[in-house]
Each structure stands twice: as structure tokens, then as C-alpha cells.
Specification:
Elements (H helix, E strand, L loop, with lengths): L9 H45 L4 H6 L10 H17 L9 E12 L2 E11 L10 E11 L5
Antiparallel strand pairs: 1-2, 2-3
Helix pairs in contact: 1-3
Length: 151
């Protein structure tokens, strides 16, 4: 009969340990990738809303020439356009809006002259929840756009 040495079974412990580390890293990478893709989706929606907002030209000020900027923005109309754009995006069932995004909201709207600045926030659900970890992460996006007159 063979006598057991002190190192018998150490490969099994090492294999189980390395497998556990690999699974933990895979879970972490998946969560980070999910956050990154959700953030990118929120930024795209915010950019789209800002671009639509700067197209809300104040025709009265533009034709009178009293605004002090080359292409003035109608801020009240721009706000409505932003709200509408975000609502349309929220109702989209396509690939642009990630289904992990929850509680999307416009947190800041600033408009002056020919500039619009928007901030949005959302909560993104994580695919994996680590023990004693959160099941979601808050993400934010801020975008500024300016209307320009093309000569």
C-alpha cells in the first residue's frame, strides 16, 4: 500500500481556488461591461435630446437680430423638445435603450442664448449581484450643445 505524502490533494485545492477566482473575475467583468453599455446608451439619448433642443430656434429674436447670438434658442420650446425626446426614447423597445436602465430622468436643463446643457440620471440593474453588494448602480450623463450658424 502506498503511503500518502503531505502534498497529495494540493492540486485539487489549487484548481478549486483558481476556478473560484476565474468565476469571480468573470462576474466582475460582466457587471462592469453592463454598466459601461448602459452609460453609453444614456449618453446617446442625452446627446440626441440636446441636438434636438438646439434646433428649437427663437424665430422672433433671430429675425429682429436683438438676441446677441447668431442663432438664438427658444428655451421653453427646447425644454419641451428634450422632454419629448427622452419620453420617446424611454418607450423605445429597440436596441438603443438598454432594458437594464431604470428610473431615467432629466436632472438638469440649462438654456441661455445659443447653448443648452442637459444632465440625465438613471439606475442600471447589474446582471450579477455579489454578496453584500448592490443590485444596481446610479449613472449620470451631462451634455452641452450650441447652435451654430453655418456661413
Amino acid at each position: 500500500m502506498r503511503e500518502l505524502s503531505r502534498e497529495d490533494g494540493s492540486i485539487s485545492v489549487l484548481t478549486i481556488g483558481l476556478f473560484s477566482i476565474a468565476v469571480a473575475l468573470l462576474i466582475l467583468i460582466t457587471d462592469v461591461a453592463s454598466i459601461s453599455v448602459s452609460k453609453q446608451s444614456l449618453v446617446h439619448a442625452t446627446e440626441a435630446a440636446a441636438i434636438r433642443a438646439v434646433h428649437s430656434m427663437d424665430l422672433g429674436s433671430y429675425y429682429r437680430g436683438d438676441s446677441g447670438v447668431s442663432v438664438p434658442i427658444d428655451c421653453q420650446r427646447a425644454y419641451q423638445v428634450v422632454a419629448d425626446e427622452i419620453n420617446v426614447w424611454l418607450q423605445d423597445e429597440g436596441d438603443i435603450k438598454r432594458r437594464e436602465l431604470q428610473e431615467v430622468s432629466l436632472t438638469r436643463f440649462s438654456c441661455s442664448g445659443d447653448r443648452v446643457e442637459l444632465s440625465t440620471s438613471a439606475r442600471t440593474l447589474l446582471p450579477f449581484r455579489l454578496p453584500q453588494g448592490s443590485a444596481s448602480v446610479d449613472i449620470h450623463a451631462t451634455v452641452e450643445a450650441q447652435s451654430q450658424r453655418i456661413p
